[in-house]
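Tutorial, part two.
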Amino acid sequence: VTALYGIDTLGEEEMRRRFREDVRQALLDKAEMRRRSREDGEDADDDDHVAKLWPDLDATGIIVDVEFDGVKGGTMDMAWAEVSLATSPEHETLLDALYDIFYGRPAASSATEPASSFNEEKKEECAPRRAGPWVPHLSLCYDNPEGLGPNMTRSSVEKLMREKCPTLKSVLEDDISDGGVKFTRTVSGMSLWRTAGTMAEWKCLDRFEFPLG
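Running the prediction step on this input gives:
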């Protein structure tokens, strides 16, 4: 499930550093804030939910569509199919934190001037605003834009899910009683990818697993 696309303002080493150090710490800090909120009586959720580094995601349906770079906010030319997931205030808060880490401050210019020392006023001047809310999703497949219809249709994606994706196919059911939620998935970790070139050339640069329980 993608949290942030298109980080193109930093070099690879700086991205790795922020991912390993700043992202991990931000997730831990947010989890601690939720824990304190619960102890203060501001959050009545169960302990398991509060302790998680990323909120569980509820599936709500599927999308089969096409987009074009520069059209209605599109960032690339593609057809795609996805399982759509519901966002939440907690999810949006975490996305804001990630956006700030990768876009809200410049790379450190020297060992004596860390990026974290960048003051809030300057950060506000240079940081683009994150467009939100962001609908999380589980991508199933991609194609060139002209593939929508001849190669990729809603019926073909539904057939694929029923035959090959037994743990996901409940998202296709119409008779759902729990507020439209088809199924829920727990996020188990986070990874950083370089997506230059074709999908076969994409490379995982780093990853970490979330603690269990």
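The first strand starts at residue 57 and ends at 67. In part three we will examine how such features are distributed along the chain.
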